[in-house]
Amino acid sequence: MDHADILLESGTNELEIVEFHVLEDLGHGETRALAFGVNVAKVLEIIENPGLSPLSSAPHPCFLGTIPLRELVLPVLDLAVWLDITRARTPGEVVLVTRFNSRTTGFLASGVTHIHRVAWSSVEAPHRLLGGCVTGLVRIEDHFVQLIDLERILFELDPVPDEEPKQREKPARTYSVLLAEDSAVMRQMVFERLTEAGFRVILTGNGDEALTLLRAMAAGAKSEDQPGAELPDVVVTDVEMPQLDGYTLTRRIKEDPDLGALPVILFSSLVNEDLRHKGRAVGADAQISKPEFGRLADVVRALIEKR
């Protein structure tokens, strides 16, 4: 898979997804293919299943063990087990080799279907009954593809340890941070870490909601009818979000005459050396890889005080 050919220009509010499927065993010889998707930017390559089977001594039932992959020892997880799906064993199963959050992990699936380019505006919020590992639904021709939150899977298997609180000099006033994050789990974690660090945090669930609120704040700050209204001191945004992604949100903030001076930090599992150019292209002031919570608070404070 050549990333140079498929990764999109920053700020177009589009993404490329790898559609794959898990073949569910319905019993009595019947099966059905369940369609899932993951951002192409997280997929390094796709390899054949080398014949992995569940380990009785595994720390979690979805852990299938490790396989050698060039210079790597690759841990492999069975997505069907995590999603509570009875997978039908079939020839041609694949392992999606992914890289995000500074970790390389394999995910077992029944097969890969296609790569699609879709607009974030076409991604629908998932129904609550689908569970927390589905971040969105997108219609591809005659079926829906469920976008999987691989970050949450890894986090729940290996949680981020609590950090020792740092002793910081109390600022002259409380700085405010507007956070755009669609994952409820990650939104709460960032909220808690920044609140503990002394910030006032304003929560939004995606880039579109964040931009609408920022423009309303800017209008209020200029209006004599809303004394005391003001913009936040900094914006922290995820990248992968339905309706409006973080790259596009950043670009629109920087192009807006009333918002352009706002510092914007990209806080995403997609922040790595191969993809930092995308954040720079849209004018991000800083880029931090999840889940570096401790560094996030320090960078937020430094950007505000520099401004």
Number of domains: 2
Distance between the termini: 41 Å
Give the second-level CATH assignment, the architecture of the largest domain.
Answer: Beta Barrel
- Indicate the structural class: alpha/beta
Strand content: 25-35%
Globally, the shape reads: elongated
CATH homologous superfamily grouping of the largest domain: CheA-289, Domain 4
Pfam family, one: CheW
Protein name: Chemotaxis protein CheV
InterPro entries: Chemotax_regulator_CheV (IPR024181), CheW-like_dom_sf (IPR036061), CheW-lke_dom (IPR002545), CheY-like_superfamily (IPR011006), Sig_transdc_resp-reg_receiver (IPR001789)
Organism: Desulfolutivibrio sulfodismutans
Note down, in words, how this protein is organized:
- The chain is built from eight helices and 15 strands.
- The strands form three sheets. The chain has a five-stranded mixed beta sheet, with no helix packed on it. Strands 3-6-7-5-4 form a five-stranded mixed beta sheet. Strands 12-11-13-14-15 form a five-stranded parallel beta sheet, sandwiched between helices.
- Helix 5 runs parallel beside helix 6 (246-255).
- Strand 14, helix 7 (276-281) and strand 15 form a beta-alpha-beta unit.
- The chain folds into two domains: 3-157, CheA-289, Domain 4 (OB fold (Dihydrolipoamide Acetyltransferase, E2P), Beta Barrel); 176-306, Rossmann fold (3-Layer(aba) Sandwich), CATH 3.40.50.
- It is an alpha/beta fold and 307 residues long.
- Residues 14-159 form the CheW-like domain.
